[in-house]
Structure formats: structure tokens, C-alpha cells
Amino acid sequence: MTALATNQDLDPARLRQAFGFFPSGVVAVAAEVDGRPLGLAASSFTTVSLDPPLVSVNLAAASKTWPDLRTAPHLGVTVLADHHDQVCRQLAGPVGARFDGLGHSVTPEGALFVDDGLAQFDCTIYREVEAGDHVLVLLELHAVAHVDHASLQEPLVFHRSGFRRVQPLTPAP
Fold it and tell me: Residue 149's pLDDT is what?
């Protein structure tokens, strides 16, 4: 690795490549809006706070889905499992077909969850922060469900522009 030069040309292609070295989990952010399922996949989910319980997701400011999705009274966030790679691709596809044939459930408040997710968070928007070409969305948690720790399921991981699986370095005790 060479020393970092100041005043670099930080072109987007070079930044995207460097950012790709950091693996992240993938979530579905979804709700029922005007009687129809609406959602998107995001690889920028992170925990924020226990008190109050907050998580965050970063979404492209140019998203065509977020303006409608943000009107929902509650949002569902589903942590996708390693078998959800096709689900993730579908959630990134044409808006009208994102939930075609996709198993899901909806709460009375409209939060939508993808079936067989590792964790589900029922949320409301706590705050939105403009952040360059993205919007940082802080979400307040109202309910949570997750699979048993003994489950053999692993999270879907996005790394270097592709989906990966978690591989432990050593077997778990």
C-alpha cells in the first residue's frame, strides 16, 4: 500500500471500488403503501442506538421508491439470509414486480417483512439527513423478531459488487 497523497482526484469509480472492500449485510426496507407492497434492497444498514432504539439505512437521493415508501406509517426492515440473493435482485428490479411471487407478511400498521429473514424490525422514521447524493434515514424501532441463534442460516453479504456468504474462520464452539 502506498502513502495517501493529498488533493487526490476522488473520482466516483475509484471511490466505489475502494468502498467495495468493506462487506455489508443486506436488508429489505418495505411497507404496504396505498394497498400495494413497496420496497427496496439496501446494503447500508447499521445499528445506531439502544436508547432510543435506532437503526439507519442510506438511500440514494435519486431513488424513485423512497418518496412513496417514506409516506408509510410504519416500515419493515428484514435482514436477508444468504439464500435471499435472488430476492435482493428482485427488490432492485422493476418497482411493479418487486413482490411478484415473493412471500411476505404485513402488520396492521403497514410494515412489510420478507419471509424467512434473519431479523425483522418494525420501524418509523426518526429523522432524515441529506448526505451528498444519499439520504441517511434514522429509523426508530417499535418491535423486533429474529431467528434462534442455533439456526444454521447466515446473512446475505454484499462485497465487491457481489453477494457472498459468511464463512467462519474456525468452527463455532
Answer: 65
To the nearest 10°, report the CA torsion of 76, 81, 84, 90. 30
Q: End-to-end distance of the chain based on CA atoms, in angstroms?
A: 36
Pure H helices in 20-168: 66-69, 85-91
Confidence of residue 5 (pLDDT cuts 50, 70, 90): low
- CA-to-CA distance for 105 and 108, rounded, in angstroms? 10
Task: Output the 3-class SS for 91-132.
Answer: HCCCHHHCCCCCCEEECCCCEEEECCCCEEEEEEEEEEEEEC
Model pTM?
0.86
Where do the structural domains in the chain lie, given as residue ranges? 25-147
Residue 28: partners with Cβ closer than 8 Å, 6 or more residues away: 39, 40, 41, 42, 76, 77, 78, 80, 87, 88, 91, 113, 114, 117
Write the CATH number of the domain with boundaries 25-147. 2.30.110.10
Kindly state the DSSP code that residue 169 receives in the 8-state scheme.
S
